[in-house]
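Please predict the structure of the following assembly.
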Amino acid sequence: MTTRHDCEALDAQDPLARLREQFALPAGTIYLDGNSLGVLPATTAARVHDVVTREWGADLITSWNKAGWIHLPQRVGDKIGRLIGARPGETLAADSTSVNLYKVLSAALEIVGRDAPPARQRIVSERHNFPTDLYIAQSLAAQHGFTLELVEPDEIAAQIDERLAVLMLTQVNYRTGRVHDMAAVTRAAHECGALTVWDLAHSAGAIPVDLNAAEADFAVGCGYKYLNGGPGAPAFLWVHRRHLERMDREQLWQPLSGWMGHAAPFEFGPDYRPAPGIARFACGTPSALALGALECGVDTVLAAEPLGGMAALRRKSLALTGLFIRLVEERCTGHGLELVTPRDEALRGSQVSFARAEGGYAIVQALIERGVIGDFRAPDVLRFGFTPLYLRFADVWDAVEQLRQVLETGQWREARFNVKAAVT
Ligand SMILES: *Cc1c(COP(=O)(O)O)cnc(C)c1O
């Protein structure tokens, strides 16, 4: 049996332990929800204060040039790019994940349509993909005459055939934490002439990603989860060089052809002309406040680079999730928790989910009252995210102890834990 003392020993040997100092964590809270909203970096409040008072308050509009506000989408994008195997100039920080997906999925459909007109009619995705991804794909499919086919993860390989236009997948499933093999799936899609769009919402800053090594086509991802960019932080998008070059050559647009993606926005001409490269994927004016906060968040992940970077974070993440699974199975037996996340490390993201037939929401509420913050995903999943930047092995032990007490006492049955809030 693992003891709390064993966990403290793991913390004492942890080469990443000091990365925790980068965060302003509330005392007495064990935060297992960094996969939904990352914690506040210690630098963010001062940075936002500076953007507000000096860059905006004192320097006013001159800050677009003087403080480089206009370059933030590409500068912050390139920093995110270091975490996902992108080269400089391939990543843009902008808009929301949903909006970025609209832009890149449109571009992918346009490119496929040019190469193989009516034959390829299908967009394929996972039935339990994050809903906004499916809703965006439904809209584009309806507009452009494609069908959206939704399948279980094990059925994807069988869907890769000459009817497939675009395979749109989230690399790490938000509910189960299951990981797709990006390189293998992309290769299979390319062999049959289709393109891939990857959502990295639960990958960027969570697991090592190498978009260029996988020869992926398009990707999007989220700024407020593992990148710690703050509530509603700008998202990002990435496009492979071969598509950027082709879009340049053939003067292809992405559909949200706003002025910030124009080749010369300050000529104020009446006709749209796309900017070269990734810049064409911008639409409207970027938020300097939000991008300043996002940069602070991304820097907390980049701070792991001298300590082994994403590979080192991944090792610790797997150790944390493995410990959590083991402790729950040792200490919470007989309480109906069923592991949903793969046991196989190669298939496990940076989260652990358990299904329970009854009371999942209330159990999470009771844990939150005890200072252990996880979340609930309908209909029956208790979800716990593990962020190796700031979580300790002893935190895992303490979280499981609280879960054990909530289950053993039946405290979760109390009425106050069974009232649904607007956000779960
Ligand atoms: C969190 C998440 C999103 C969020 O999209 P927004 O546009 O930021 O609301 C999208 N896709 C996936 C897979 C997610 O996990």
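The chain has two domains: 4-40+308-418, 68-301. The longest strand covers residues 164-170.
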